[in-house]
Design goal:
With about 160 residues, the protein is of the alpha/beta class. It has 6 helices and 5 strands. Helix 1 links the parallel strand 1 and strand 2.
Length: about 160
C-alpha cells in the first residue's frame, strides 16, 4: 500500500513555515508524508531599505556595492530559510512523518505543475497563507485549470479582538 503524499507549497522567506503545523497534523491523521515546495520570485530583494540603498549606490555609479548588497541579502535569506527548514525537519522527525523539500526560483504555478509531473504520487496540494492571501501570491483559478489534484488553501488564524 502506498502512502499518501501531501504537497505543501509556500513562498520562501521568514514566514515560509506559516501553515505548516496544519499540514503536519493532517499528515499524522492521514498517515501521509509531506513534500514541501518552496518558491521564490526571481531577483527579489526583501527589504525596502536594501532596495533604496541599492538604488542610491547605482545612481552614484557604484555597481559593485549594489552587487554586494544583493549578494548579502541573498545570503541572509538563505540562512533564515535553512533555519526554518531545519525546524520543520525536526518537527517531522519527532512526529514520524516523512519529509522532503524542494526549492524553486520560479513562478508558483509553473513550479507546482513541474513538481506534480515529476512526483505523480502526490495526492493533495496545500497552499500556504503566504501565497494564498496575497494579491501577488497565486492565482487559484489558473492553478486549478492546470492540475488535477485537490487544492486546499490554508488561512491564517484570526486574532482575537480586545
Amino acid at each position: 500500500m502506498t502512502k499518501e503524499k501531501l504537497l505543501f507549497v509556500t513562498k520562501g522567506g521568514e514566514d515560509c513555515d506559516n501553515g505548516f503545523n496544519y499540514i503536519l497534523e493532517l499528515a499524522k491523521t492521514l498517515n501521509a508524508g509531506i513534500a514541501m515546495l518552496m518558491v521564490y520570485n526571481k531577483n527579489v530583494m526583501q527589504t525596502y531599505e536594501d532596495v533604496m540603498a541599492a538604488v542610491a549606490f547605482a545612481e552614484a555609479g557604484d555597481h559593485q556595492m549594489v552587487r554586494d548588497i544583493m549578494k548579502e541579502e541573498g545570503k541572509r535569506i538563505e540562512e533564515k530559510t535553512d533555519m526554518k527548514i531545519n525546524e520543520i525537519v525536526e518537527k517531522c522527525r519527532e512526529n514520524s512523518v516523512s519529509f522532503t523539500y524542494q526549492i524553486e526560483s520560479e513562478e508558483a504555478i509553473t513550479a507546482i505543475k513541474y513538481f506534480l509531473k515529476n512526483n505523480p504520487g502526490t495526492d493533495m496540494v496545500l497552499i500556504s497563507p503566504n501565497l494564498s492571501e496575497r494579491k501577488k501570491g497565486i492565482d487559484l483559478k489558473k492553478l486549478i485549470k492546470h492540475i488535477t489534484k485537490p487544492v486546499v488553501t490554508i488561512s491564517r488564524l484570526a486574532k482575537a479582538g480586545a
